[in-house]
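Dear colleagues,

As part of the handover before I leave the project, I'm documenting each prediction I ran so the next person doesn't have to rerun anything. This entry is a single chain, and its sequence is reproduced below.
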Amino acid sequence: MADKTNPPDHPVDPLQPGTVPFSRPPRPKAPDAADADHEENHKDKKPPIER
């Protein structure tokens, strides 16, 4: 019987904490900073987005 803790359908490498089944790679911080700048630039045009 296959190892239930690490099924071959979606293996997770314990040496790589970022490895998650069917997950996309983590987004870099750059887009977040760009979003912040975008909100700052358009703050006077529309109310801030509730998060």
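The chain is about 25% helix and 0% strand. The CA atoms of residues 2 and 8 lie 8 Å apart.

All the best with the project,
I.
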